[in-house]
Amino acid sequence: MKVAVAGCCHGALDKMYETLELLQRRHNVRPDLLLCCGDFQAVRNEADLRCMAVPAKYRHMQTFYRYYSGEKKAPVLTVFIGGNHEASNHLQELPYGGWVAPNIYYLGYAGVVRFRGVRIGGISGIFKSHDYRKGHFECPPYNQQTIRSAYHVRNIEVFKLKQLKRPIDIFMSHDWPRSIYHYGNKKQLLKMKSFFRQEVESNTLGSPAASELLQHLKPTYWFSAHLHVKFAAFMQHQANSKEELPKATKFLALDKCLPHRDFLQIIDVEHDPNAGDSLEYDAEWIAVLKATNSLVNVTQSSWNMPEKNGLHAKWDYSATEEAIKEVLEELNHNLKIPCNFTLTAACYDPSKPQKHREPVHTINPQTTEFCAQFGLTDINDRIQQAKEESSVRGEYEEEEEEDMDSTGSAEEPSEYNTDNSGLSSINPDEIMLDEEGGDEDLSTCSVDPSPDHPPDFSASFSDIRIMPDSMAVSSDDAMDSTNEELEKSGGSKQVEEKSLNERPLKRIGGNENGNSGIKKIKRRNQAIYAADDEDKTE
Predict the structure, then answer these.
(1) Which UniProt keyword terms apply here (predicted)?
(2) Pick from 379, 298, 462, 369: which is nearest to 108 by CA?
C-alpha cells in the first residue's frame, strides 16, 4: 500500500490534503494512509491556541477546526504523533490515543496500531532530561513551566515501548534519534546546515531516548521531523544472537510544510491484502499497557523505571503469549478501533471570536471508554483526583512551588544527564526565548499545491531521489551508503514560550482559555513564520 509521510504541518491541514489531491490528479498517486510526525496542531478554538508553547503573535487558528467541527473530513486516514508545538490541552485528553476528528487519529503519548496488517508505532513530544523521569502531572490551565513540560517525553512511555517483542514496521518520533546522522550523508547535512556541526561532532544532536528505542525496536522505517530539514539514513542493526536475522532501518526526516517544499514522501509498504481497511488496536501493545498500568505516575516526583539492578522485584513487563491471547478474547478477535469521536470543546467560529475563552481540564469520553474496556488508569481522572485532594488540604500551591525545580529521587541518577532535544548553537532560522532555547520554531505558513511546482515525491523509499556521486556518504561518515539515496532540504529548529495564569480546576467544560504573558524574544529571523519571506531566506 502507499503511505504518505509528512513532517510538521503546523495546522495547515487544508493545504496538506490539497497537495495529496494534486498528487492524485497529476501523477495518479493516491495514498492509503497519511502519517504526520508531530507539530500537527489540532487547535479547536482560541483556548487551545493559548495552550501552545509559542509566542502569542504566532498563534494562528489555521484549519484543523474545520475538520473538528465536521465542516470538512480528512480525505485519507491520518495518524499523527504530537510534537512540541501542539494544543497540549486537547492532546492531553487522549493519553492512550484517540480520534481528534473523524478520520484523524492521535497515537497518544506513545502507541502502536495496525492498518492493513502494517504495525505502526510512535512516541509524542521531545526529549528534555529535566522532565524525563517525572510523571504526567500537567493539566490546564498551564503555567510557564507546564505549558512546556506537557510535551516532554517521559521515561514510562519509552519503558512501555521497550517491552514490545514483535516486529514494528513503521515508527514515528518528533525529534531525531541521537546519532542517526552518522548513518546518512552527514557531510551534506552540515554543508546545508552548518549550525548543526557542534552537536553532530559532540554527538548530542537528537534524542537519546529515541536512539534507545531505535536500537531496541529496529523498525523497518523510522520517520521524524522537528529540525525542518529533509535527511535520509540507513542503519544496519547488530543481531542480538546468532539466531536473530539481520535487521535494518530506513530513516527519513521530513521538512516542514511550505510552498513548493518537498515536505511529503510517498512510500510503498508491504501489507496484508486480506486485512480490512479499518484502523486496529495492536494486541501486544494493549497487553503491555495492562501489564504496566501499576507504574502510572501523575506526580512531579522523578523516578526510574524498573530494571534488573537488584532494586526492583520485577523488571520485565513484556506481554506473554497468554496475555496477548486474553486481549484478543476480550475483544472477540475484533481489533477494530471504534469510531467514537466526540466533541469535547466548543469549536472556533470565525464570525464570533471568543478571545477570552479559558482552557479547562477535560476528561474525554474516548479515554474513559478505553480505560474501562481494558482496566487501565485514566490519567486525567487521576490528575483531577490528586488536585482535588490537595486543594482540600490546602497544600497544592505550596507543593507545586516546592516541586517545580525537583530534579531527582532517592534512587540512582537519570540515565540521561544532558538536555539535547534541540540545538545549542545559533540557528539563523529560529526564534528563541531567553530561558529555554531548545524547542523549534512555529511555522504558520501554508502549502500551495502549485501546478508549476508540484511537490517532489517518490513511489517507494528506494526511489527517494538519486543524489549525485558528490553527495554520497564517505567512509568516515560511518557507513557505505552507495546504494542508499539521501535527501536534504531546508531546516530550522526551536522555540518556547511562557503562558498562563492559573484558575480553579473545572472537571469538564466547553470554555477554554488562559491569560498569557509574553517573554522577551530573541528574533533572529522571522522569515520562517511568513510564507512570503521563507522563499527569500532559504
Answers:
(1) Hydrolase, Iron, Manganese, Metal-binding, mRNA processing, Nucleus, Zinc
(2) 379
CA distance 248 to 238: 9
Q: How far is it, in rounded angstroms, from Cα 419 to Cα 77?
A: 35
CB 80 within 8 A of CB 33: no
Pairing state between β 264-268 and 248-253: unpaired
What are the C-alpha distances in Å from 12 to residues 42, 85, 119, 413? 10, 13, 27, 41
pLDDT tens for each residue of 409-468 = 333 344 454 444 444 444 334 333 333 444 433 333 323 333 333 333 333 333 333 233
Q: Is 479 exposed, middle or buried (0-12, 13-18, 19+ CB in 10 A)?
A: middle
3-state secondary structure of 285: helix
E strand residue ranges, 133-243:
170-173, 221-224, 231-236
**Cβ(384)–Cβ(507) below 8 Å:** yes
> For residue 172, which amino acid is it?
M
Angle between helices 396-403 and 379-393 (to 10 degrees): 110
Q: Enumerate the domain spans of the chain.
A: 2-393
Higher pLDDT, 517 or 368: 368
Torsion of CA 54, 55, 57, 63, to 10 degrees: 10
pTM recorded for the entire structure: 0.78
- Cα 154 from Cα 439, distance rounded (Å): 16
pLDDT over 70, % of the chain: 72
CB atoms < 10 A from the CB of 341, how many? 19
The mean pLDDT of 12-37, rounded to a whole number, is 94
B/e letters for 5-27, b = 16+ CB within 10 Å, e = fewer, are bbbbbbbbbbbbbbbbebbeeee
pLDDT for 146: 97
CB 57 within 8 A of CB 92: no
Q: Supply 128's cell numbers.
A: 528534555
Rounded distance, CA 477 to CA 486, Å? 13
Q: What is the pLDDT of residue 509?
A: 37
Cell, residue 356: 477570552
* Continuous segment of H or E residues that includes residue 249: strand 248-253
62 Ramachandran zone, left/alpha/beta (phi>0; psi -120 to 50): left
Q: What is the CA radius of gyration of the chain?
A: 22
At 353-410, the pLDDT tens digits run 998 899 999 999 999 999 999 999 999 999 999 988 877 776 555 555 544 443 333 3
Cis peptide before 219 (omega within 30 of 0): no
**Chain Cα centroid distance, residue 51:** 16
Residue 89 Ramachandran class (φ > 0 left, ψ -120 to 50 alpha, else beta): alpha
At 249-286, the pLDDT tens digits run 999 999 887 665 567 899 999 999 999 999 999 999 99
Q: Three-state SS for 517?
A: coil
CB 116 within 8 A of CB 271: yes
